[in-house]
Amino acid sequence: MGLLTLDRDEARRIAVRAQLLTAPRPTDLLAVVRRLTLLQIDPTAAVAPNVDLVAWSRLGSAYRPADTQEALERDRTLFEYGAMVRPMSDLPLFLAAMAVWPENERQREWLRANDRFRRDVLARLDSAGPLPSRDIPDTSQVPWPSTGWTNNRNVTQLLEFLTMRGEVAVAGRRGRQRLWDVAERVYPAGTAVVPLDEARRIRDERRLRSLGIVREAAKAPPGVPDSPGLPGERAVVEGLPGTWRVDPAALGQPFRGRTALLSPFDRLVHDRPRIAELFGFEYLLEMYKPRAKRRWGYFALPILHHDRLVGKVDAAADRGAGVLRVDAIHRDVPFTGAMTEAVRDELRDLAAWLGLTVGGPATRATVPRAVPAAHP
């Protein structure tokens, strides 16, 4: 079978449609997470936590952070696993991998050496859970060695390991603190186990559907095991070297673009080489750089306009002052009047969703005051 040939416009539109960033907006949180397959958890909240910012980018101001919390803690339609929020309907696709985790010998050896510690933690959670890690005594026989921040953080390291093994699960949060419990009180009883090879195949298919188009040799994102190959149709993109994989269901679909402000961790932009090739867009998360060396800002939000990534917004939520402070709007291409107004509309909507007003040196004095949202 010959290779498909796509022009770059269609390749970009496939990627944008796959990530639910076209018009009209979706309206259901669970449907969004099922399509995206995951929402990455990150503690940075310069504007809003990543899970909420990604959901807002799709759902708009109708989305409430409490929706995700309720889905995780009350309805159990979502679950937290591997620093990702995932649909509970996908749990069967992870259980076989949990049963053989870890594959790393260092991790296996540490678990073997701390089997009594493991049994202590499971017994405490069974009798008193859900608990934050600080309420779980460290009875380890062998400390966890690391040159990084996890060195000797034995309780949290064991909890992470037991979560990956499917013995423990995150039952909820108290602020930023995770609450841990035995998995059988969090995961639905009697969940079927999809065999490992089949589960990986299905997850690969869903990953491709969520991204639309990826490099044929693209590395899997964090939390997703590498697979021998991806499903989909092989394709070339005009003007770009090499081959790609395309979701066949995405071909020939209509496109109705809109403007969106994206999290730096958004799956549309997380693969920096892909966005450089398909969108001609340069981006680097600069929160770890000294201020004087930043080009775009601490937590610059990429700007999507229809099928183009056209700039970055240097913004931060100053909750003490009640302002979404916009320090700069970096334009990678000349903005038309309609583009400028569309970006300002998104900033007003973002501020209103956060319960803030728009301010800062990059905004005009004529930007109207946002109406505070009903949630914090």
Structure description:
This protein has 376 residues and is an alpha+beta fold. It is 32% helix and 18% strand. The chain has helices spanning 8-18, 29-36, 50-59, 65-73, 92-99, 105-113, 115-128, 154-164, 196-211, 272-279, 337-354; strands at 4-6, 39-40, 78-81, 84-87, 168-174, 177-182, 213-215, 233-237, 244-246, 259-261, 301-305, 308-318, 323-331, 357-359. The strands form four sheets. Strands 10-11-12-13-14 form a five-stranded mixed sheet, with helices on one face. Strands 1-8-9-7 form a four-stranded mixed sheet. A three-stranded antiparallel sheet has the order 2-4-3. α5 packs across α9. The longest helix is centred in the C-terminal third of the chain and has 18 residues, at 337-354. It is globular, with a radius of gyration of 22 Å. The model is unreliable at 365-376 (pLDDT under 50).
Descriptors:
alpha+beta, 32% helix
The tally of strands reads: 14
Q: What is the strand content?
A: 15-25%
Task: For the largest sheet, list the strands in their spatial order.
Answer: 10-11-12-13-14
Largest sheet: 5 strands, mixed
Shape: globular
